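Appendix C reproduces, verbatim, an entry submitted by the partner laboratory led by Prof. M.T., so that reviewers can inspect both the input and the predicted structure.
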Amino acid sequence: MENLTNGFKRIEQDLQELGSRFSKGDLVGVDLDEIQSQLESIADTEKKLKEYLAEVSQLKSESKEIIKELTQAQKSFEQRFTELTKSHEREQTNFEYFKSESKEIIKGITQAQKSFEQRFAELTKSHEREQQSFEQRFPELRDNNQLQVENLKLELLKAETRLNVYGYQIQKLQDYMNSIETKFNDIINEFRSFPNKIQTLVEPEVFQSQKNNIKKLNKQIRMIWYSMIALFILCLFLAAWAGLK
């Protein structure tokens, strides 16, 4: 840029000098070669100026693109900065919210811990009281339990004795029932052979009458037998019930 300014000043000086020399109208002693040299110098300077102007124009165009890119970059930066600012504000808001929530949670946890500790202390004291009460009552409970065990042993011994007695009685009753059954079978056999004996000794009408009487007697004997069986079962039930008591 400094060379461009100096070039313009130099051209302006050369043109003023030539204009001053031609305006006087005195062309005597004018050195044409010098004028030619000055004109060539001016042309050369003009060429350089054009080159400088072309470079300046190119630089200006490039600077416009750079400025455009910088402007776009600045807009992008500002947009991104705005987005980051909004995001930071949202995060800050969320952080404040979570901070508030965490305080509430910590407060709730602290309160729950205090309640737990209080409840645990109450349960501990209650357990200690129950433990102390149990330790105080344990000798009494142990003595009562021992007494109950001894009483139970005594009752079992009595029950065993009663069962032995009832067993002996039941055995005697069973022997008696077996004896009755044997006698009953003998009677039945005797009665079964009795009609044949009567038939040879009495008349047919008397025999038929005696036969009917024998049937009735057999029926009565069966009833007696069934009654004895029922009585035997009842005795067994009573003996078992007494043994359980």
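The CA atoms of residues 180 and 225 lie 9 Å apart. Additional entries are available on request from the coordinating office.
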